[in-house]
Amino acid sequence: MLGGVEDDIVKGMYRLRASANAASVQVQLLASGPILREALAAAEMLESEWNIGADVWSVTSFTELRRDGMRASRARRLGARGVAPCHVEACLAPTRGPVIAASDYVSALADLIRPWVPRRYVALGTDGYGRSDTRAALRRFFEVDRQSIAVAALAALADEGEIERTRVAEANTKYAIESTGSAPWAA
After folding, report:
1. Which end of the chain is more exposed for a tag (fewer CB within 10 A), N or C?
2. pLDDT tens digits for 76-85?
């Protein structure tokens, strides 16, 4: 455990890894559980192969983050003054770039915090019924492996006009991601 993050762990998320890349284009990767290792690998790929800075955030509880967001929203709605931003807002406010969240639960879990994410937000999860012989194959099937996280980040950056859309197609080819196949929840 990193020093000084104890309170953030209890609140629901902390920055595990700040980007080592000072690139002008940045993304924020949020991940929970075993998918955290995939997000760390995706960050390395984005930095070394695409020259994109990527911070990685460990999400210890999407549910706790939602409760805190609802607390802040309720206080604002009821007219309280000087309401502190919720933890998600406070963590992400000083950062740049789209936010990509990955979980080995359904994407609806990561969607719990969408109202408090200040920028483009993409939630990846294991929606559908997976049939695979290995964890790596299952993660690829559900599009939550390191390559899929990296492609989601590139696509979000393209949607924002930060990079050319051709780079997304290049990544799909490079990582052998089938862009015309069925979505995992429809398979």
Report:
1. N
2. 999 999 999 9
User: Is the residue at 83 inside a domain?
Assistant: yes
Helices (H) and strands (E) in the chain, counts: 8, 5
pTM: 0.92
Question: How many folded domains does the chain comprise?
Answer: 1
The alpha carbons of the chain give a radius of gyration, in whole angstroms, of 17
Residues 6+ positions from 73 with CB-CB distance below 8 Å: 86, 115, 116
d(CA 124, CA 67): 21
Sole residue written with tokens 């639960």: 105
Which structural domain, as residue segments, surrounds residue 27? 6-186
Distances, alpha carbon 104 to alpha carbons 50, 67, 78, 135, 152, in Å? 25, 21, 36, 11, 16
